[in-house]
User: Which sequence fits this backbone?
């Protein structure tokens, strides 16, 4: 059985044809320049020959680049599909509360280091106050997930390193990665109100579905 003909890229085919026409024209101009003895005509034909030669070189170079790009794409192997996540682990309220407190304290240090807080009549418009409120909102949502503070490795869930979790949380708040990675070196700060702490802890301990248990 005959092997199928390889597909030809239209752009490559056109460039190959154009290069062939340039070559034919270059040969013709070269022959004309050789056959004449008129100095002016020789000079004009020489300039034309140089322009045609430059066009031919450009066509060949572009053709070679397109061919190389096509062959590279053909060699590339698409990445495998992502592996499915392991089954959702059982809920561990104590671990989730402990991790929530740890990432909260770390993120608060980063927020405080990035903004200089000054009390104003309208604290809700203050950048620091807004970020602290946003932090609590994110944590109240995230601690409802049984995988909070965990990451998938192979077919199992393992504890995510605290520093990685802090960097990821800070990134979601728009905080710089460099400061997040240095959170242990930053001064400690306590901003959270007792009400916020209670709401977040209730979310961590309670039903992750958010259903009312009463």
Assistant:
């Amino acid at each position: 059985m005959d092997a199928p003909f390889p597909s030809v890229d239209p752009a490559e085919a056109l460039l190959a044809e154009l290069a062939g026409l340039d070559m034919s024209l270059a040969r013709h101009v070269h022959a004309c320049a050789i056959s004449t003895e008129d100095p002016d005509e020789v000079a004009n034909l020489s300039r034309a020959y140089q322009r045609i030669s430059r066009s031919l070189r450009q066509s060949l170079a572009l053709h070679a680049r397109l061919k190389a790009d096509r062959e590279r794409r053909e060699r590339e192997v698409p990445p495998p599909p992502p592996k499915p996540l392991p089954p959702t682990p059982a809920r561990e309220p104590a671990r989730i509360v402990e991790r929530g407190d740890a990432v909260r304290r770390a993120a608060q240090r980063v927020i405080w280091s990035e903004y200089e807080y000054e009390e104003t009549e309208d604290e809700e418009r203050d950048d620091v106050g807004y970020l602290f409120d946003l932090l609590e909102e994110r944590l109240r949502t995230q601690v409802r997930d049984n995988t909070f503070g965990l990451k998938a490795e192979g077919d199992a869930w393992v504890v995510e390193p605290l520093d990685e979790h802090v960097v990821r949380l800070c990134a979601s708040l728009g905080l710089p990665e460099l400061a997040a990675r240095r959170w242990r070196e930053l001064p400690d700060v306590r901003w959270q109100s007792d009400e916020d702490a209670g709401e977040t802890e209730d979310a961590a301990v309670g039903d992750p579905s958010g259903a009312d248990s009463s």
Observations:
- Residues 10-75 form one domain.
